[in-house]
Amino acid sequence: MNKRKKIILVVILLAVLLMGIGYAALANVTLTINGKATATVDQENFKVYFTGENTKKSDETGTNVDVTVAAKANTATVNFSGLTKKDDEKFAILEIINDSNDVDAESITVAINSTEATANVIEATAIMCDSNGDAISDYSVLSGSKTYVKVSAKLLQTPTEDVESTLTATITAVAKEVN
Q1: I need a labelling partner for 103 at 20 to 30 A (CA). Which of 27, 76, 85, 146 fits?
Q2: 116-129: per-residue pLDDT in tens?
């Protein structure tokens, strides 16, 4: 009977063990949660503008170059006077900041608009540059960093009558895409 008790005991133990494994297999449930998160663009997060500070001019006395830059504005107005003969040129260097907290600018460029009637008399240009007016080729600007633009007006021909042109510089900035 001893041998028989051992066999019954082993069979019972195996049955309990198999029931435990079976229960674990049935009780092991994988929980899957589906959903989504969305991010919405807020243009207030990407702030690039003229600072209104540190403007350098070709005429530091200010009598021939008048720069009107409102702080935190996307446009600046530059008036040049004292251009009298062909190839006379005046310039102003304007400071631009990427004042975004964490959005880098892939590129910042500046376009110049001038009075149409003076297009063949006065050539207006905007060149992205460093603070000294030397042209740059990398137009990207990290958040919190500055760049500069050199706005200039050049006489293409000696005028026979007074010509007036107001130049408006406008910033275009492209945010760097998040990877």
Answers
A1: 76
A2: 656 678 888 999 99
